Amino acid sequence: MLERSHLMVIREVERQGSLTAAADKLHLTQSALSHTVKKLEQQLGTAVWAREGRSLRLTQAGQYLLGLANRMLPQFELAEERMKQYAQGERGTLRIGMECHPCYQWLLKVVSPYLANWPDVDVDVKQRFQFGGIGALFGYDIDVLVTPDPLKKAGLTFQPVFDYEQVLVVADAHPLAGEPYITPDQLASEVLITYPVETDRLDVYTQFLMPANVVPRRHKVIETTDIMLQMVASGRGVAALPRWLAEEYAGWMPLTPLRLGKKGIAKQIFLGTRESDDSIDYLQAFVASARKADWAEPRFRA
Predict the structure, then answer these.
(1) CA-CA-CA-CA torsion for 207, 242, 110, 293, nearest 10 degrees?
(2) Where does the signal sequence lie (predicted)?
């Protein structure tokens, strides 16, 4: 019979790369783990690993079980964590996944009053889910996904919480700084600085440059907002960011936000949750507080 401990072994051996390292992580002797592996394969009637010298490679059956382990074990771990919290009189932990680089600054402004209103709930932000948020929600690795690009999936709910405008940010001394709005061809001679995201997920490309068949002179990626805007302020390039974030930095750096196109680019931030979690009061309270935050950027009008 397949048990949870078997899935833990399969996941840990794959993570660690060897029985020796996995045994140490699982607090077992190598002989005990080897016996467990042999017994598991006997029970299943098929090999889980193919042995290549001292290394192990998952067979097709093993790959299937690894996928099962990656889906099921996080749910067990979450259930145990929540039961422990309930036993200690805590409400739980709200795990937020970020699929949006500049949204982190926005999130800080939501989290602060939320923690004050829900003192028995902890908040954990997981930025490693910036590019795999849907899977993280389905896998119970996170409870809330912050994203500007929701995907309709059965079992998930996405609620818009914040309207904003995507703008081009240039240095105050940049020749474009006095323009009422920017056209795509004006970026053909510019160095465009973006976050390390595929171009097909960058609005400045998909909604502005690509439709006009324009590419910037150079595309440079920078991971942190502070360094990106320091580069822009020093005249090393231009960047596309939410207006609220650009204006926040423009308060203390020589930066000018400019509309992208005559009509601009309107965007929204969404919070994604599992439909099965609709009854969790502190999770729904977080969504509600994000939607009614009175400091948000005014609704965008073209």
Answers:
(1) -90
(2) none
pLDDT of residue 280: 86
Looking at domain 4-86, which CATH architecture does it have? Orthogonal Bundle (1.10)
The crossing angle, in degrees rounded to 10, of helices 103-117 and 281-291 is 120
Structure token pair of residue 193: 């600085």
Name the residue with higher pLDDT: 182 or 49: 182
Q: What is the reported pTM? A: 0.64
**For 121-138, what is each residue's pLDDT tens digit?**
889 888 765 557 888 888
> Could you tell me the pLDDT band of residue 77, with boundaries at 50, 70 and 90?
confident
User: What is the tens place of the pLDDT at every residue in 61-70?
Assistant: 888 988 888 8
Residue at 201: amino acid letter = R
Helices within the chain (DSSP H only): 4-16, 19-25, 30-44, 60-87, 103-117, 133-138, 203-204, 225-233, 243-250, 281-291
The CATH number given to 92-161+268-292 is 3.40.190.10
The one-character DSSP state at 164 is E
Distances (CA, A) of 86 to 91, 92, 117, 175, 273: 6, 7, 19, 59, 21
**Which residue from 293, 240, 286 is spatially nearest to 267, judged by alpha carbons?**
240
- The alpha carbon of residue 145 and the mean position of all alpha carbons in its chain are separated, in whole angstroms, by 7
> Parallel, antiparallel, or unpaired for β 121-126 and 238-242?
unpaired
Parse the chain into domains and list their residue ranges.
Answer: 4-86, 92-161+268-292, 163-266
